[in-house]
Amino acid sequence: MADFGIALAQSHGDGRTRMTKAGASLGTPEYMSPEQATGEPNLDPRTDIYALGVVLYEMLTGQPPFTGPSAQAIFARVLSEEPRPLVVERKTVPHHIDAAVARALEKLPADRWQTAAQFAEALTGAGASSWTRARRAPAALRRSAIPWALSAALLLAAAWVGLRNGRSAPPAPGPTRFDVELDPGVQPSFTPIVRLSADGRQLFVTAMVDRREEILRRPLDQMRMEVIEGAGQGEQGTGNSRPFVSPDGRWVAYAKQGKLRKVPVGGGSAIDLAVADWAGGSWGKNGRLVYTRAYNTGLWIVSEGGGDERMLTTPDTAKGELGHWWPQILPDGEHVLFTAYRTPIERATIEVISISSGRRDVLFTGGVFGFYVPTGHLLYAVGETIRAVPFDLRRLVVTGPALPVVDSVAMNPTDGAAAFDVSENGTLAYMPVSSYVTETEVVLVDRRGSESRALPMTDRYNHPRLSPEGSRIAVDIRSPNSLGDIWMFQIGRSGGTRVTAEGGRDFGAEWTPDGRELIYSSEHPFFDLYRRAADASRPAEPLLTGAYDRYTGSVSQDGRLFAFVLSVPGGAELWTVRLRGPPTAARYFANGFNLAHPTLSRDGRWMAYDSDESGRVEVYVQSFPDPNLKRWKVSPAHGSEPLWTRDGGELVYRKGDSVMAVSIDLHNGRSGPPRALFGGPYPDSPGWTRPRSYDVSRDGERFLMLKLPPQRIRPRIHVVLNWFNELRAKVPR
Question: Does residue 138 surpass a pLDDT of 50?
Answer without folding.
Answer: no
